[in-house]
Amino acid sequence: MLKKKFYDFLKMTLGCLMLAAGVYFFKIQNNFVTGGVTGIGVILAAITPVSPGVWIWILNIALLILGFCILGRDTGIKTVYCGMLYSAFTFFFEKYFALTAPLTDQMFLELIYAMLLTSIGSALIFYSDASSGGTDIIALILKKYTSIDVGRALLITDFAVAVSSFWLFGIKIGLYSFLGLFSKAFIVDGVIEGFNTCKYFIVITSKKEEIKEYIIKTLHHGVTSNKVIGEYTGEERTMLHTVCKRVEAIKLRKYIKKTDPKSFIIITTSHEIIGRGFRSV
């Protein structure tokens, strides 16, 4: 449990850093309003003398209180950590890496980097069952009480914020903002699915004991077996079923082919495995 918590907080810290970098160096400088607290902060900074970093602090604190009350103690603590760390990173970049203009004159290129950094950062945070604060909290609440996935929940909560960019910054920025908003929803879901990807093995073999021992004692996964008969040959063999992570799948495939070259292996990809050794319900 301690090891899992350490890796969770490591992923959350990296996610917050990537999120803040994408927001400050690419989104704020180009006035991209792709929703969320960042979008609201950019809008409020344009009409008030307060900087986007300060607005992000203020808005996050208000929404973090809501998240702590609704999402529960564990998620609330992680969300407070991520929300405050993300705001702190953004404020740090604003203070010590002050920019008065975009890094380049290629707006589309900057939009790509803005979406990649913020989407991967958000996915790392969501994968740890946390949130960076802001409207991400609303997305997690929708995920908790409905069947809507995280990406689409973000799309719903951020849509209204992005609309305002047309009025405040013009059609060009507004169109870029909408493009970023839609692309982020799909990138977040894609990255999270990539984290959850596992391999499902069906192995028909005559070396049941050796392969079973390797799966249980070396890979530390469970295995299910049943007797099968090949109708073409009439031979009786054992069919093994197991699931493992992608890195482990390479090792298992090599071991099976080495132990039983005549084995028949079916490997399929699964984006979600729920149970002991993988994800909890």
Q: Strands across the major sheet, in which order?
A: 2-3-1-4
State the secondary-structure class: alpha+beta
Largest pleated sheet = 4 strands, antiparallel
The helix content is: 55-70%
The termini sit apart by: 16 Å
Rg, alpha carbons: 24 Å
Query: Could you give the order of the helices and strands?
Result: HHHHHHHHEHEEHE
Strand content: 5-15%
Whole-number total of structural domains:
2
Residue windows where pLDDT falls under 50 for at least 5 positions: none
Quaternary form:
single chain
What integer is the average pLDDT?
83
The dominant shape is elongated
Count of beta strands: 4
* Count of alpha/pi helices: 10
Topology:
Blueprint: H1 2-30, H2 36-47, H3 52-71, H4 73-96, H5 107-127, H6 135-145, H7 150-169, H8 171-196, E1 198-205, H9 208-218, E2 224-229, E3 236-245, H10 246-259, E4 264-270
Antiparallel strand pairs: 1-3, 1-4, 2-3
Helix pairs in contact: 1-4, 1-5, 2-3, 2-7, 3-4, 3-6, 5-8, 6-7, 7-8, 9-10
Structural notes for this entry:
The protein folds into 2 domains: 194 residues, no CATH class; 74 residues, Alpha-Beta Plaits, CATH 3.30.70.120. 67% of the residues lie in helices and 11% in strands. It is built from 10 helices and 4 strands. It has a 4-stranded antiparallel sheet with strand order 2-3-1-4. Helix 2 runs antiparallel to helix 3. The mean pLDDT is 83.
